[in-house]
Amino acid sequence: MLKIKALLFYGLLLSAVITECLASSLAEQWSKVSLPTYSVSAQSIGTYNAGCISGAVSVPINGTGYQVMRLSRSRVYGHPDLKHFIESLGQTAAKKQLGSLLIGDLGQPRGGPTLSGHRSHQTGLDVDIWFLLSTQAASHTLAFKERETWNAPSVLVGQSDTIDYRQWSKANEKVLEVAAQTAEVDRIFVNPSIKRELCLTHARHDWLRKIRPWWKHDDHFHVRLKCAKNNHDCQGQEPLPQGTGCDAELAWWFSEEAKHPVPSKIPPKPLILPVLCDNVLKQ
Question: For residue range 1-28, what is the model confidence (pLDDT) as tens digits?
């Protein structure tokens, strides 16, 4: 019996290693592509964590109310809807004097898997935005070195579930509110403590439904847009649950089960991209 269990264990381990190697090889191919494909209209293909994009556009690294960070990664590409969303949110931040938005990763020129472990951001519909609303960035254009070396500070106290009000402000709440009220936004991922803070201050607001608790995300929020209407090969997520999510659903995130999830014994599924993505990669 022990031998059988050992064989099963090593079999699962080997399967996981092979899956990881194949995923890394695939990510290498996509990371080498430096330009988007030409397309009359941008097409997001597949799912957020297994897909690609044809006809992506780059987001200008400087815009009204925002600046793009980590330029060396060359992940400034996305669907035109994503470009419009970032520019619009930046304009609102500037108009309301909330501070300058610091934009993290969008996607690669043609989407697809990345080498750094981001499983999503593959269809040009995801963007990370720092919680740091920089007054310094609002007053001048950041140098390349600043964009590479600045870090996104956590809005939590140490490793706790407590909000650090030296880093968190009403301006952060306003940015999330504006983003969540944008029609093309599907959901926004934040740390559970941030969701709880918003539930305390905006308990009855419908836009809270789009604010979704997720592991980490204590130094940035992750915006995910809906599939564009004419992108028939784009697969969206399941609909959001009803309600604001400020009930038992949120309470679970502070349980021991959520804080210390048990690793699955089932090896991860191999990353399989839609057939259409082969054509996107080869163009």
Answer: 444 433 433 333 333 333 343 457 899 9
Paired sense of beta strands 50-54 and 77-78, if any: unpaired
String of DSSP letters for 13-74: HHHHHHHHHHHHHHHHHHHT--SPPP-SS-EEEEETTEEEEES-EEPPSEETTEEE--GGG-
The SS3 of residue 175 is helix
Closest CA to 218 of 265, 153, 137, 146: 153
3-state DSSP helix/strand/coil % of the chain, to nearest 5: 35, 15, 45
- pLDDT digits 0-9 by tens, 227-239: 999 999 999 999 9
pTM of the model: 0.91
Contact 281, 31 (CB under 8 A): no
- Residue identified by tokens 């190697």 is 21
* Calpha distance 172→169 (Å, rounded): 5
Taken as a whole, the chain contains a residue count of 283
DSSP string, 89-103: HHHHHHHTT--BEEE
- Quickly count helices (H) and strands (E) in the chain: 9, 11
| CA–CA distances in Å: residue 242 to residues 69, 156, 209, 211 | 35, 28, 7, 12
Give the DSSP letter of residue 160.
S
| Structure tokens belonging to residue 235 | 């697969």
